[in-house]
Amino acid sequence: MHRQQKTSGFTLTELLLVVTLLGVAMLLVGPLTVQQIEKFQQKNEVFTLERILKKLSFQAFVEAKPMQLYLQGKAMYLLDNTLLTAALTVPANQTLTPEQLQLNVNQQPYYVFDKLFFDEQLLQLNANGFYQNDQLQLKAGQQTQQLQLNPQLMPSEVSDGR
Measured on CA atoms in the order 39, 42, 47, 50, is the torsion positive or negative? Predict the structure, then answer.
């Protein structure tokens, strides 16, 4: 008489099959998840940039003084009015250099972004809080985007003087 032992659990083959299937699933889903996280981080930084630009616009309005922002690479610099004198003499078709803006090498950026990249740009805010430039160009990943700086008034919002 042969006694049969009851065993509970999984066999080694079953465990290897499950681990292999999980590995294949991770290979298929992993890169998509990383791409989605990267896109979310880029969108989050664009929202942060918009918030900073609105804050500075409000600050220029409240203090009734113009402001200048210099963007290069991943950094945003808030310039003093005295630093702008050389930049105003640069023709529009030429790029600005830090020397022309008299940027101090030790000047700390106002904000540094991780996922956004800017071509060299100078943004000017007037004392009413409006940007002289209508758009800001930025690169988020491989995509180039244009951010609208000044709010567009709808025809219903424009008063006709009544």
Answer: negative
Task: Quote the DSSP letter at residue 75.
Answer: E
Q: Quick one: how far is CA 129 from the chain centroid?
A: 21
Number of domains in the chain: 1
pTM across the whole model = 0.68
Residue of 140 and 99 predicted with greater confidence: 140
Residue 23 lies in a domain: no
Q: Are 146 and 137 in contact (CB under 8 A)?
A: yes
Rounded to the nearest 5 degrees, what angle is found at the Cα of 136, between the Cα atoms of 131 and 137?
Answer: 165
Q: How many helices (H) and strands (E) does the chain have?
A: 2, 6
C-alpha triplet 66, 85, 138: angle, nearest 5°? 65
